[in-house]
Specification:
The complex is a heterodimer.
Chain A lengths: L2 E5 L2 E3 L5 E8 L8 E6 L5 E7 L6 E3 L7 E6 L4 E6 L8 E9 L6 E5 L3 E5 L2
Parallel strand pairs in A: 2-11
Antiparallel strand pairs in A: 1-3, 3-8, 4-5, 4-9, 5-6, 7-8, 9-10, 9-11
Chain B lengths: L8 E4 L5 E6 L9 E5 L6 E4 L13 E6 L2 E6 L8 E9 L2 E4 L3 E5 L1
Parallel strand pairs in B: 1-9
Antiparallel strand pairs in B: 2-6, 3-4, 3-7, 5-6, 7-8, 7-9
Classes of the chains: A mainly beta, B mainly beta.
Chain lengths: 121, 106
């Protein structure tokens, strides 16, 4: 079955760190770029970061640049998001999303179920 | 930074046509996608590359993009189409989502 399964969410203190993981199965993980997208409680979707299939290219939203690091281990079919210097406004469900298309027409064609990150003292 | 604007809500009667707009500066020069998110569920891609329907998405979903506006059209709207809909595009390697539109079928 083609799927993405996130883990690693939980409660963190402001200024703290968490590492999210996303395990992929059912497709050739290394062939596809992948992103993290988050959704604050009751709010809309916000793109966070993306990484190329071979891990050579990474991009970040301004809101997380310098604090979050995206990476992947293609031997383990796993995507990661290292989140440092966490803030209350980082509280959200974090989804990993497989990307289809290329160049100017990327799209998210497979989503995981998400993992909840809560930043609070 | 680039912004996409959607109406917060749209209402439609069953069997009628619903149109959800997404506005952004020269959006027609980019590719727009649309996602459906039912309550408590993950988003699902319903339109890619302005107007392409992924496998498994009903034919009643269609899209267009020109000028400053992309439009998602749902023909013969069904109760199961009640959901939040988000448009999305890329600007300078950054993903941008619209604020979302809640579609009510009543």
């Amino acid at each position: 079955e083609v799927q993405l399964l996130e883990s690693g969410g939980g409660l963190a203190q402001p200024g703290g760190s968490l590492r999210l993981s996303c395990a992929a199965s059912g497709f050739t993980f290394s062939s596809y770029a992948t992103s993290w997208v988050r959704q604050a409680p009751g709010k809309g979707l916000e793109w966070v970061s993306r990484i190329s299939g071979n891990g050579g290219g990474t991009y970040y939203a301004d809101s997380v640049k310098g604090r979050f690091t995206i990476s992947r281990d293609n031997s383990k079919n796993t995507l990661y998001l290292q989140m440092n210097s966490l803030r209350a406004e980082d509280t959200a469900v974090y989804y990993c999303a497989k990307m289809g298309g290329s160049g100017s027409f990327w799209y998210f064609d497979l989503w995981g179920r998400g993992t909840l990150v809560t930043v609070s003292s | 930074s680039y912004e996409l604007t959607q109406p917060p809500s749209v209402s439609v009667s069953p069997g009628q046509t619903a149109s959800i707009t997404c506005s952004g500066d020269k959006l027609g020069n980019k590719y727009a996608c649309w996602y459906q998110q039912r309550p408590g569920q993950s988003p699902v891609l319903v339109i890619s590359q302005d107007s392409r329907r992924p496998s498994g998405i009903p034919e009643r979903f269609s899209g267009s993009n020109s000028g400053n506006t992309a439009t998602l059209t749902i023909s013969g709207t069904q109760a199961m189409d009640e959901a939040d809909y988000y448009c999305q595009a890329w600007d300078n390697n950054a993903g941008v989502f619209g604020g979302g539109t809640k579609l009510t079928v009543l």
